[in-house]
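Next up, a chain.

===
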Amino acid sequence: MKTILQANNVNKIFGAKGNQYTALQSISLSINEGEFVGIMGPSGAGKSTLLNIFSTIDTPTSGKITIDGENIVAMNEEKLSDFRRNKLGFIFQDYNLLDTLTVKENIVLPLALSKVPAAEIEKRVQEIADTFGIRQILDKYPYHISGGQKQRAAASRAIVTHPSLILADEPTGALDSKSAASLLESLSKLNQANQSTILMVTHDAYAASYCQRVIFIKDGQLFQELPQEGLTRKEFFGRILEVLASLGGGHHDAV
C-alpha cells in the first residue's frame, strides 16, 4: 500500500530562547493512499499547527515530512509553491471563494492556472459537481448560495485537481447539521469511489465519525489512535466521545 504522508519525529517550537513554547513534540505518523483520517484534540493541543506544517504553510523546527514521496521540509519556496498547487487540495472553514467569480469559475481556477486543456476542465467540473450535488448552482455567484453550497463548491475546487492529499481544516465548522452531513457524505463517497486521501482536523465528533481512523493529540504529542475497524458510524461516534472525555476535550471544544 502506497504511503502518501509520512512524518518522522516532527517538532515545532515557537519563540526565542528563554521564552519558548513547544507546540509539537516527537510527532510520527503515516497516512496511506485512500485513507480518510481525522485529527482531534483539546484546544491548544497542536492540531492546527500540525495541519499548517503538512500543508507547507509553516515549517517544523525539526523532523522529516514526505508527501507522495517528496521531502517537503527540504524544498525552497518556489518548489513549495508548485508542490502546493499540484499535489495538495485545501478545504477551509471559511470557504475562501472569490465573490467576483461564479461557482464554476471558482472550481475551474486551479485547473486554468495549471493550463489543463478546456475539454478536460469541463469533464472534471461536471464530474465533481455531480459528486457534491452542485450542478444546479454552477452559474451562480457565492453571495447567492447557502453556506453549505459554498463549502461544497470549495471542496469541489480543492479536489478537481486530483491532489495526492486533501487537507480539510474544520470543514463543517460554519455549517448547520444538515449541510455538514451533506458535505461529509460527499467527502466519504469521494474517498471510497476515487481512493482520495483526506486528512481532516475537526473538533466535532460527528464529523470525525466519517473517518476511517482518528488520531488524537494532547499537549503537542500523540495521545491515542482510534480505528473505525468494522464499527458502525454510530458506534465509532461513541468511541470518539469516550476518548475526547478522557482527553478533557468535549464534543464541541474549541480548536
